[in-house]
TrEMBL record:
<dbReference type="GO" id="GO:0044205">
    <property type="term" value="P:'de novo' UMP biosynthetic process"/>
</dbReference>
<feature type="domain" description="Aspartate/ornithine carbamoyltransferase carbamoyl-P binding">
    <location>
        <begin position="6"/>
        <end position="148"/>
    </location>
</feature>
<keyword id="KW-0665">Pyrimidine biosynthesis</keyword>
<dbReference type="GO" id="GO:0016597">
    <property type="term" value="F:amino acid binding"/>
</dbReference>
<feature type="domain" description="Aspartate/ornithine carbamoyltransferase Asp/Orn-binding">
    <location>
        <begin position="159"/>
        <end position="314"/>
    </location>
</feature>
<dbReference type="Pfam" id="PF02729">
    <property type="entry name" value="OTCace_N"/>
</dbReference>
<dbReference type="GO" id="GO:0006207">
    <property type="term" value="P:'de novo' pyrimidine nucleobase biosynthetic process"/>
</dbReference>
<keyword id="KW-0808">Transferase</keyword>
<dbReference type="InterPro" id="IPR002082">
    <property type="entry name" value="Asp_carbamoyltransf"/>
</dbReference>
<comment type="similarity">
    <text>Belongs to the aspartate/ornithine carbamoyltransferase superfamily. ATCase family.</text>
</comment>
<protein>
    <recommendedName>
        <fullName>Aspartate carbamoyltransferase</fullName>
        <ecNumber>2.1.3.2</ecNumber>
    </recommendedName>
</protein>
<comment type="pathway">
    <text>Pyrimidine metabolism; UMP biosynthesis via de novo pathway; (S)-dihydroorotate from bicarbonate: step 2/3.</text>
</comment>
<dbReference type="InterPro" id="IPR036901">
    <property type="entry name" value="Asp/Orn_carbamoylTrfase_sf"/>
</dbReference>
<dbReference type="InterPro" id="IPR006130">
    <property type="entry name" value="Asp/Orn_carbamoylTrfase"/>
</dbReference>
<dbReference type="GO" id="GO:0006520">
    <property type="term" value="P:amino acid metabolic process"/>
</dbReference>
<dbReference type="InterPro" id="IPR006132">
    <property type="entry name" value="Asp/Orn_carbamoyltranf_P-bd"/>
</dbReference>
<dbReference type="GO" id="GO:0004070">
    <property type="term" value="F:aspartate carbamoyltransferase activity"/>
</dbReference>
């Protein structure tokens, strides 16, 4: 597979053929991710998990995915805890840390920083989010989830009518997802945001050039009724010049049970890259949706482990050796009734 020995810095690096192969490998990871089986295929390998910006699910699911394949994880979190705070360059940091790791996952607040780091790395580097630029592994797990959710309704990707909702200007997950959707043709995509937070033109162009039917709007009513998948995003307050400016959009596109029942198709799928901002004045995705079968946000986070396991396996070239290092689980799995 073409991922072997390669960096994953951008979704521009992946083709449709590669995605289809990757998703088959991701599906083969399910017995290990759900603790039906154990594989030790990466025993002895070390992941350098370097997160210089806050993260819960990307950081932990990278680590969890590597552990589930039998590898060890060495973690660095926060710029102030690293020698970057003393003026060390990304190049030097990469030269050093790639001597300690077999593969590195990295998040950094500046666009282009992970690519700069990769330039100095002697091992493959995976982009875990570089500022407002890209979040390729999130886009892959989002696309995997869209496939899974549509399949559960006996639909395929060709049936997708997707509404991207919220802060489309700063949301790197939707920037990467648009680029992946540009690999398909003839989909329906609605881009709904406050005008000041609209999707950058370069991503809209990718969608229109792929022949998708793209609608742009700024009200929920314009985006919800025709969607079979709704992808809500958080207002990315850390990307605004001031908190006051970000506060203008808090609660702007609130999606709750009443709005969902009134405007959405029955069982419309709700996705969100998370974290959702659950503070009272934000509530972009209310807790009263938690029992809706269409709410796919935690199936989405579970899928993150499958897709990241598949990426590690393919980049390190062990995707065909999983069974060779397999054994049964010897502990109790889940909660006893
Ligand atoms: N979706 C996502 O990137 O979440 P974290 O910021 O918690 O990693």
């Amino acid at each position: 597979m073409k991922l072997k020995g390669q960096h994953l810095l951008s979704v521009k690096d992946v083709s449709l053929e590669l995605i289809n192969d990757l998703f088959k490998v991701a599906e083969s990871m399910r017995p290990y991710a759900t603790r039906q089986k154990v594989t030790r295929v990466l025993e002895g390998a070390v992941l350098g998990n370097m997160f210089f910006e806050p993260s819960t699910r990307t950081r932990v699911s990278f680590g969890c995915a590597f552990n589930l394949l039998g590898g060890e994880v060495r973690e660095t979190t926060g710029l102030s805890n690293s020698a970057l705070a003393k003026g060390e360059s990304l190049y030097d940091t990469a030269q050093v840390l790639s001597g300690y790791s077999d593969i590195i996952a990295m998040r950094h607040p500046e666009a282009g920083s992970v690519a700069e780091f990769a330039h100095g790395s002697r091992v493959p580097v995976i982009n875990g989010g570089d500022g407002p630029n890209e979040h390729p592994t999130q886009a892959l797990l989002d696309l995997f989830t869209i496939h899974q959710e549509l399949a559960s309704q006996d639909r395929g990707i060709q049936d997708l009518s997707l509404t991207l909702l919220g802060d489309l200007k700063h949301g790197r997950t939707v920037h990467s997802l648009c680029q992946l959707l540009g690999l398909y043709q003839g989909l329906k995509i609605q881009l709904i945001s406050p005008e000041a937070l609209a999707m950058p033109t370069k991503y809209v162009d990718i969608l229109t050039n792929a022949g998708h039917q793209v609608e742009i709007g700024n009200t929920l009513e314009q985006g919800l009724p025709q969607a079979n998948v709704i992808y809500q995003t958080r207002i990315q307050e850390e990307r605004f010049s001031s908190q006051e400016e970000a506060n203008r959009y808090r609660g702007y596109f609130r999606l709750n049970k009443q709005i969902y029942s009134q405007h959405c198709q029955p069982n419309a799928v709700i996705m969100h890259p998370l974290p959702r901002d659950s503070r009272n004045d934000a509530n972009e995705l209310d807790n009263d949706l938690n029992t809706e079968p269409g709410l796919a946000i935690f199936r989405q986070t579970d899928n993150g482990v499958l897709v990241r396991m598949a990426l590690f396996a393919c980049i390190l070239g062990v995707e065909n050796q999983l069974h060779q290092y397999e054994r049964e689980v010897n502990w109790f799995v889940g909660l006893d009734d």
